[in-house]
Amino acid sequence: MIINNGMIFCDDGVFRKTDIEARNGIITSIGEKLTNHEGGAVDAQNCYVVPGFVDIHTHGAMGADFCDGTSDAIDTMARYQLSKGVTSFLGTTITLPEEQLIDICKVASTHVNVVHPDRAVMRGVHLEGSFFSHERRGAHIPEYLVDPDFAMLSRLNEASGDNVCVVAVAPELPGSLEFIKAASTLFTVSLAHSEASYNEAVTGFTTGATHVTHLFNGMSPFSHRDPGLVGAAFDCDAYVEFITDGIHIHPAVVRAVFQMFNENKICLISDSMRACGLPDGQYDLGGQAVTVVGRKVSLPDGTLAGSATSMPDCMRTAVEFGIPLTKALKAATINPAKTAGIDKDIGSLTIGKRADIIVLDNNLVIKNIIFGGDLLDIDSINKP
Ligand SMILES: [Zn+2]
Predict the structure, then answer these.
(1) How close is the Cα of 213 to the center of ligand 1, in Å?
(2) CB-based contact 39:26 (threshold 8 Å)
(3) How far is ligand 1, taken at its centre, from the CA of residue 214, in Å?
(4) pLDDT single digits (tens) 263-286
(5) Ligand 1 centroid distance, CA of 139 (Å)
(6) Which domains does the chain have, with CATH numbers?
(7) What does the buried/exposed string (b/e) look like for 102-125 if buried means 16 or more CB atoms within 10 Å of the residue's CB?
(8) What are phi and psi of 316, to 5 degrees?
């Protein structure tokens, strides 16, 4: 497989007009005049050639939710993701009773890193919950919130086949620091749905947390005398994920984040729920009724409850808001792969990595998807 003449988004964050070649599903060369046409050729003249997108925070799509706890739901999400150019994702939970989360993790364990030709690869589990503040719970169901409990986390990780990649926690809760200390030796700890003051959040980071879940949403505001979790994330050089769907965050704040935070640590996420890819209407989110209008998903009281957008759409929206394409692309590929610890084989166009490659036209619309070195027939995947 060879892709000729495109603007290749190289792993140093720079575009270069050249060719890229894959053999046996792996990127084998990037450079001039490559000739391996075995497995097909793509002419990428006037196009961007970028890594497959990596969505580390997605709950569902096309009527399916990761927390349905079924193989069918995971497959449905995975097909939708691949149709959007997302080649790797983390199945993301919401706050639920432990027994239910255990069952969800058990089903997930049979899917992690399993490759199908028509589905994005689920690289692991992102536990969003259940260790959150009541005040900042967002759409998380209050009855199921619990204080940080490392024994519970260990049971969930075991059920997932040791495939938890990210766990989210509010650092101000009782037992949180012990939890962060222990959990951060195993995987990425993210601060989330939290009332933490600046000092409490700094302590969370110095104890081992390295990431913030949907920055600005589900936390106290970034204020000039009380900078809270957002200010602490800046001072502690944390990874920050956020939803640039044009609804969760004002365009000016999107621009400010890309100026303020380390461009190698900003991650775009979809936070998509089951209505993503479906028409407007009433849907269920963990037993709660939600209304979807366009990209906006809300509870009856107006609280935002995830999104109905895809991560590449967030990337395009960020660029519309004025973010340089190279920064938006890093935030959609290598940065999320790194923070989740899944960047060894994916996340960039690097020789030796898996050949998950997207060809985008000038308007950033997907022209081709090369998945594990195979050119996909985009129309044959589950396209909404
Ligand atoms: Zn979420």
Answers:
(1) 8
(2) no
(3) 8
(4) 999 999 999 999 899 899 998 877
(5) 9
(6) 2-49+350-377 (2.30.40.10), 53-339 (3.20.20.140)
(7) bbbbebbeebbeeeeeebbbbbbb
(8) -65, -40
Give the Å distance between the CA of 59 and the centre of ligand 1.
6
Give me 49's structure tokens.
């050639």
Give the span between the Cα atoms of 346 and 162, in whole angstroms: 20
Is residue 271 flagged as an active site residue?
Answer: yes
SS3 12: coil
Residue owning tokens 């990596």? 54
Read off the tokens for 87.
């080649």
**What does the DSSP 8-state code read for residue 324?**
-
What are the DSSP calls for 85-150, one per residue? TEEEEEEE--S--HHHHHHHHHHHHTTTT--BTTBPEEEEEEEEEEE--STT-TTS-GGG-----H
Torsional class of 352: left (φ above 0), alpha (ψ -120 to 50), beta (otherwise): left
C-alpha pair distances (Å), 344 with each of 162, 205, 339, 349, 355: 17, 24, 12, 12, 13
Q: What is the pLDDT averaged over residues 64-72? A: 97
Select which of 68, 271, 313, 343 is catalytic. 271
What is the pTM (predicted TM-score) of this model? Answer: 0.96
Contact 114, 75 (CB under 8 A): no
Distance 131 CA to ligand 1 centre (A): 13
pLDDT at position 384, please? Answer: 47
Q: Using CA atoms, how far apart are residues 48 and 179, in angstroms rounded to an integer?
A: 43
Distance 306 CA to ligand 1 centre (A): 6
